[in-house]
Structures are given as structure tokens and as C-alpha cells.
């Protein structure tokens, strides 16, 4: 079983975020980490490899700093990495990100591609599904369990209101993995040492830009919520004040 896992580097959850001068995204002076749903996707790929044998390849797109998430994945047990390296990859929407990934792996023969359900920064939950459409592969989302079957794989999907759906999916396929599907492992000391010698292929923007098009989505403006307060005194008889207060809570505050 040959599995590709797409991992994104995102700002740390407890990082203090500041907007850039253009107000279109955050400043770069923050700490970064691997996207949490992608970490569960990697763990599931490693478990499938342990059960079925094969190869796990990890991929990310972003500047040089994004290489850190690949090194961490290699230390946990991934076999090799692909880095779409360049600042230009940061500004791509989900559609162009998927097209860039598809172009970078066109010479590979994967059985499965895993992505996290969504990213912790944008939260679009689109890249994996669009990638499947570009490749012409079947896909399934919000995956909670995967089993090999005679015809391909059988997956368990999480639906709303506590319901689940079991689906048979032929291979090759793309799956978006739900957080909590498994328990994450830590990199071992020997894994960290071995990661330094594992291959990492770098792909530049020039190599995939022929497959890209103008972004279909873009962020026009980001802003921090404005904090304000307004004090209003109600005067009159107690009964009149109570009536006015109820009306304000019902019609203006909409809490009743």
C-alpha cells in the first residue's frame, strides 16, 4: 500500500496573531506547527503501513520553514517527503493548492491519498475533495475507520447527530481524515536520527505553475473585532423600568 499524506504547517493554537500591513493575513513572526487533522491523517497512514506494508510519503506546500512538519513526519515513520517549496504556495486557494499537488505527484503511483479534514487556519475543508476531482479518483470525507477489503477499502464516516456511514471505496482514492480517529504517536530518538537521511524531493513553483490559474478565492480583508460598550440608564417607576428592560432584552439584545 503506497500512501501520500498531505500536511500543512499552520500557526500554533496559542500563538499571538498580528495582521500584516495589508490586512490580508497574519504577520510571519509567529510560531508554527503541523495542522492537527493532518497529524491524525499521518498516524492513520503509518498504521495502515504497519498492517499492510508499503510506503508512506508526506507532502507539504510552503516556504522553507514548512520543511519542519516534513522532518517531524519522517521522524515518526514516514519513508520520504515532497516539499513544494516557495512563498508563492502560501497565497494559493484550495483549488490551486490541489492542482499544484496533482502536478507534483503526476509521476507517482499512489493507492491512497490522505488529508486532514480541514486546516486549523483557513478551515475550508476543500483541498482533499478538489484533489480527488482533479485526479478523477473516488473520495470519502470525515473518515473515522479504514479497513482493507477485497475490492478496495471499507471506511467509516462520521455524520451528524451521532450517526455513522460505512462505505466501500475502490482504489486509488482520496480520504479526508477526522481528528480523533486514533491516538497520535511521538517521534523516537532513533526516528529523529533516521529522518536526517531520508529523501526529500523539492518542487519549485516554476515546475507546477503551468497547472495553476488565477485564484478563485481570496481574502479581501481581515480585522480584529472592535470592543465597545454603551451604558443606558432607565428612569421612571419600577414597573415602567421593568417593562422597558424586558422590551430591550427581547427586541434589542434578543436574549428572551
Question: Brief overview, please?
Answer:
With 256 residues, this protein is α/β, with parallel strands linked by helices. It is built from 7 helices and 11 strands.
Fold and architecture overview:
The mean pLDDT is 93. This protein is of the alpha/beta class. Helix 2 (67-76) crosses helix 5. The chain has seven helices and eleven strands. The longest helix is centred in the N-terminal third of the chain and has 17 residues, at 36-52. Strands 9-8-7-10-6-1-4-5-11 form a nine-stranded mixed β-sheet, sandwiched between helices. The chain has a single domain (2-211), classed as HUPs (Rossmann fold).
Features:
nine-stranded mixed beta sheet; 29% helix; 7 helices; alpha/beta; 256 residues; Rossmann fold; two-stranded antiparallel ribbon
Query: Which strands sit side by side, in order, in the main sheet?
Result: 9-8-7-10-6-1-4-5-11
Mean pLDDT: 93
| End-to-end separation | 57 Å
CATH class (first level) name = Alpha Beta
- Superfamily (CATH H level) name: HUPs
Order of helices and strands: EEEHEHEHEHEEEEHEHH
In percent, how helical is the residue content? 25-40%
Going by helix content, strand content and strand pairing, the class is: alpha/beta
Strand content: 15-25%
Biggest sheet descriptor: 9 strands, mixed
Total beta-strand segments: 11
Q: What name does the CATH topology carry?
A: Rossmann fold
